[in-house]
Amino acid sequence: MKSQPTNSAISTYNKIVKQTYFQLVKEAKALLATIEEEPLRYSLIREDKQSFQQGTIVHEFLNPLLYLRLECYAENKLGIHFGWELMPTFGEYYHIMNTFVRLVYKLTMADTTAINIEDCIRTDYVINECSAAYEHLEERGLRHHTFVLIPYKAKPIKRKLRKVA
């Protein structure tokens, strides 16, 4: 028989999931900042300041290329949904989606965090048409979301260093 998790165990779990989620948002914004085209750097952000209860969307980040959502599930445990725009292999933005998916799993691995939060990644659905979701919310009106433009930041040029004898 499974034992019920205690409130302190759930709050510790939620704290680490929330920290990891906002680290993912930060990394996603850094990836998107390298895109020159301004429309692809616009994002919709939703934040609910309410207390956690099952079904509450705590935070949502939606961009034409990437999607992240922090949501409260059963037992008031937080979960992370994610998504990315499907791109042809080796397309112009393929490396951004590739890096993003690897980041999601890298930052939630059991080895990376103080406690195991691997089960916070929710895969009951994965958004693979972020641009369509973005357009839908934009057309529907922004009752819950706000527009944010991620400032452009050119990629640093990596130079090959010579070996010094």
User: How widely separated are the two ends?
Assistant: 65 Å
The strand order across the widest sheet is 4-3-2-1-5
User: How many beta-strand segments?
Assistant: 5
- Which sheet architecture does the biggest sheet show? 5 strands, antiparallel
Q: How many discrete domains?
A: 1
- The Rg value, from CA coordinates, equals 18 Å
Strand percentage lies at 15-25%
Shape: globular
Number of helices: 3
Structural class: alpha+beta
How confident is the prediction overall: mean pLDDT?
A: 89
Helix-residue proportion: 25-40%
Summarize the helix and strand pattern as letters: HEEEEHHE
> Which residue ranges are poorly predicted, with pLDDT under 50 across at least 5 consecutive positions?
none
Brief write-up:
The protein is α+β, with helices and mostly antiparallel strands and 165 residues long. 31% of the residues lie in helices and 19% in strands.
Describe it for me?
The chain is built from 3 helices and 5 strands; from the N terminus they run H-E-E-E-E-H-H-E. The chain has one domain. The chain is an alpha+beta fold and 165 residues long.
Give descriptors for this structure.
single chain; 165 residues; alpha+beta; globular
Can you lay out the helices and strands and say which pair or pack?
Blueprint: H1 7-32, E1 42-47, E2 57-62, E3 66-72, E4 78-84, H2 94-107, H3 130-140, E5 145-149
Antiparallel strand pairs: 1-2, 1-5, 2-3, 3-4
Helix pairs in contact: 1-2
